[in-house]
Amino acid sequence: MNRDEALVLIKDVLTDVVPGADTAALAPDENFRDNLEMDSLDFLNFIEALSERTGLALPESDYPALNTLDGCADYVASRTSVK
């Protein structure tokens, strides 16, 4: 999966977890947890859904990298791209 594909997937997952979320209004480097007012359960639902959709194990130690669209897209693309 390339970075653009990852970004589309991440926005789709965010919309599933936070219905009505305006992901187009999110800045790439903005903490979307804060902007979308996601509580810890929402974020865990996001992590679980992202893991299911990508097939990636997402350890808790990596959660800080998954708080922004840029961070998420880089993380997913780097772990799903064919080398």
Task: Describe the 3D structure.
The longest helix is centred in the N-terminal third of the chain and has 15 residues. The protein has 4 helices and no strands. It is globular and about 35 Å long. Helix content is 55%, strand content 0%. It is mainly α and 83 residues long.
Short description:
By secondary structure, the protein is mainly α.
Low-confidence region ranges: none
Instruction: Please give the number of β-strands.
Output: 0
User: How do the SSEs run, as a string of H and E?
Assistant: HHHH
The Rg value, from CA coordinates, equals 12 Å
The largest β sheet comes out as: none
Percent in helix: 55-70%
Beta-strand content bin: under 5%
Number of helices: 4
End-to-end span in angstroms?
A: 11 Å
Mean pLDDT: 94
Broad structural category? mainly alpha
Instruction: Give the overall silhouette.
Output: globular
